[in-house]
């Protein structure tokens, strides 16, 4: 068993790939077979495994989520009550609830069992920059 906490800096909404850092952690852990748990310690961002070959995928996902859940100052979001932390906060919580804060990835022969085009991403939902903490745990 091994654990660490990664800091993932963000510059606003979008997908931030950190697959290489996760792969390095698994490699250093020396685990031949097991399970990696990736967990983000925040409620206004999330984690996803997504294609990492074509930047259009990232762009389309970001556009889809911004259209699905716009900022709370958009007239369609007039029903939102929680507004203390700005117009991006409650929509960020909704987007995080629609995705996930924890991902399990199998480890086989000392490597993550990801598909050819899959990468691990932090999905930032807030407008301002953040330093997000992501916990890695292999067992």
Short description:
The chain is built from 3 helices and 8 strands, in the order ββαββααββββ. It is of the alpha+beta class. It has a single domain, classed as Jelly Rolls.
Detailed description of the structure:
This protein is an alpha+beta fold and 139 residues long. The protein has one domain: Sandwich (Jelly Rolls), CATH 2.60.120.460. It contains three helices and eight strands. It has helices at residues 19-29, 55-68, 89-98; strands at residues 2-10, 14-17, 33-40, 45-51, 102-108, 111-112, 118-124, 130-138. It has a five-stranded antiparallel sheet with strand order 1-8-3-5-6, with helices on one face. It has a three-stranded antiparallel sheet with strand order 2-7-4, with helices on both faces. The longest helix is centred in the middle third of the chain and has 14 residues, at 55-68. The chain is elongated and about 50 Å long. The mean pLDDT is 97.
């Amino acid at each position: 068993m091994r654990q660490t906490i990664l800091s993932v800096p963000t510059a606003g909404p979008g997908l931030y790939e950190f697959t290489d850092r996760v792969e390095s952690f698994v490699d250093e852990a020396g685990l031949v077979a097991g399970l990696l748990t990736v967990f983000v310690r925040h409620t206004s961002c999330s984690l996803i495994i997504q294609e990492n070959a074509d930047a259009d995928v990232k762009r389309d996902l970001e556009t889809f989520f911004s259209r699905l859940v716009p900022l709370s100052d958009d007239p369609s979001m007039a029903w939102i009550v929680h507004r203390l932390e700005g117009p991006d906060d409650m929509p960020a919580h909704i987007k995080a609830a629609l995705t996930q804060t924890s991902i399990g990835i199998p480890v086989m022969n000392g490597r993550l069992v990801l598909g050819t085009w899959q990468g691990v991403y932090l999905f930032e939902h807030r407008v301002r920059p953040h330093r997000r903490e992501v916990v890695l745990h292999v067992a």
